[in-house]
Amino acid sequence: MLAAKSICGACRTDVPIPSFTMAFQPIIDIESGDHYGYEALVRPIGGGGAAEVLNQIGEHNRYAFDQACRVRAIELAARLRLDALLSINFLPNAVYQPAACLAKTLEAARRTGFPVHHLMFEVTENEPARDLSHLQAIFTEYKKHGMITAIDDFGAGHSGLNMLADFQPDILKIDMALTRAIASDPVRRKIVAAIIMLCQSLSVSVIAEGIENLQEAVTLRDLGVRLFQGYFFARPGLEELPIVPRDRIDSVRRAHESFLLDQSATGQPGAASGL
Known about the structure:
Blueprint: E1 6-7, E2 14-15, E3 21-29, E4 35-43, H1 51-54, H2 62-79, E5 85-90, H3 98-101, H4 103-112, E6 119-124, H5 132-144, E7 148-154, H6 161-166, E8 171-174, H7 176-179, H8 186-201, E9 205-208, H9 214-222, E10 227-228, E11 237-238, H10 246-266
Parallel strand pairs: 4-5, 5-6, 6-7, 7-8, 8-9, 9-10
Antiparallel strand pairs: 1-2, 3-4, 3-10, 3-11
Helix pairs in contact: 2-4, 9-10
């Protein structure tokens, strides 16, 4: 069912968009133990998969939907009193004029009292940007307002290193295609280690996505990752902010310390698959 039509100045006409809400998944700083932020994820009203909503999005309503997602995420985050980063995905091909298209975002932040510097915008590598120079202009506009920028799904999309070469975000999120089963896959470990080293040289922080078990978390921690997101820590909560249990965070620290002791005793670097 379609919600009431959303009016967008750039589109000049009323555009129908599907009804939707947001779920929030925490991003954990394993060193401090803090909730670094939460990613806002599109969900149907009452719950369900994102595809139920996204399958109703096309060229005719892409811009209106992108704008509505930003506003809804900020409104919910403010209502839930989120005191950390709010990560919002955006569709690069839906942003026509960076400054003008940011107006509703800024207005929603002002109206709800949500700090603009707590906003992080992720561009997914899974959607090919039609014009990378335009995407760079978008990132520049966001940074001008003190917002954090990120490349999402790195390693699973179209642009790869070309996108990173054209502009450097504040954060790069390594896709689960690379983090999955990394503890037992030496090739993935080497690829991810190279990405982390590259990001360190560019002063880009790294978030490891899609973490599903302790072995993956420990292996990535050993490679230098401190920011994590995935089902191992918490599933997305529909219109709520899930809290990661402290013992889950501590379990990664303890297992990593044990891993380092084993390495020191044997003198052999290796995977964390035997934990």
